[in-house]
Request: fold
Amino acid sequence: MSASGVNACVVSVGNELLFGETVDTNSAWMGRALASRGITIVRRYTVADLAEEIRHAVREASGLADLVIVSGGLGPTSDDITRPSVAELVGAPLEVDEVLLQRLRERFEACGYGELPALNVSQAEVPRGARILHNPRGTAPGLAMRFSDTWLVLLPGVPRELRAIFGGELSEFLELEFGDRTLSVSHRTVHTTGVPESRLAELIEAAFARAPAISELAPDVSVAYLPDLRGVDLRLTTRGLQAAAADAQLSHVLDRLEPVVEPWRFHATSGDIVESVSGALRSRRMRLATAESCTAGLIATRLTDLPGASEIFVGGVVAYENAVKQALLEVPEDMLVRHGAVSEAVAVQMATGVARSLAADVGVAVTGIAGPGGGTDEKPVGTVWLAVSGLGRPTSEHIRFVGDRQAVRERAAQAAFALLLRSLQPRP
Reply:
């Protein structure tokens, strides 16, 4: 148990999680939700639908944390054994809660299912003394009970149900039980793209080494690197500080790191560079067209995932065949012969041609070799050319990406957005 602050463990139950059939999004979501409340997750468990495995994980977790949240296994079928397993562990017999049972009956009737199935009656069984956390999205209620010095909370595994309970009665419960012990948490996130995690960390560590005052004036700031295929988020965090002190320390670190991250940084509340690109196009009252080969429409898809995309996006052309590049993007045949489809000249002409063909202000293009085949010694798998036209002299970029086919495509699309953003917002 923690002497100050609140520690938590999360136990995810389900064979489907271990088999890889289902991705455990609940744990990640709860990690963020608990952290925002000043509660620190110290360990996560994933266990099978086996009573002893569930009891072992909960028993061990209860010795580490003030709060243990178990998700999954609260349904009505035979493999849903979390409730009886935990009830046996805490020594609390299961008893039918008549109020809960009546709510289940009413829910089934309201949904037009008629009489409550016998299997669902088990979902009204509650360990003696447990607190019911009502589920507005489903039939499995959440449950909270004491086990030694630890609070155990059982939640359904269905994400929308878990989140509904968490955002409702569980939030109230956590505030009541732990509100006076949680540590305030403050974050600042810096979004970067186009720089490897190791290189970014190297540069930031060097900046700290050159300026010891960063650590001296901001001793409570921790730095975390959060990489994915689209870039690296730099997260700065303080715990246990008053708002003013947290803001001062975070601002101090950000000010010192700004010159380090500026070449790769983009500003987006959502964390998606498309938001930044869209804002830049709107501010210049420009509309965009896309020409894609290896990304096969991924750039256009990401643009149109953003609400209001019609204001800045005209349309796009997916040009896999050279004949399509010639017919729709005005790429000359002799250019394709001389340089090949994956080349700077072709990328620039694709960007220029799509802007002209679709009457857009700006064109962005990508052509490359995503793999797994098609590479040569001169142009290996992962070779990509990007280009932007319509903003003065066309700009282009050559990058060799590593990874499988999907990784190359994702990275190429992100790089296209980064090149476009740099072109729209020239740096001094």
Notes: The chain has a mean pLDDT of 94. The two ends are 52 Å apart (CA to CA). The first helix runs from residue 15 to 18.
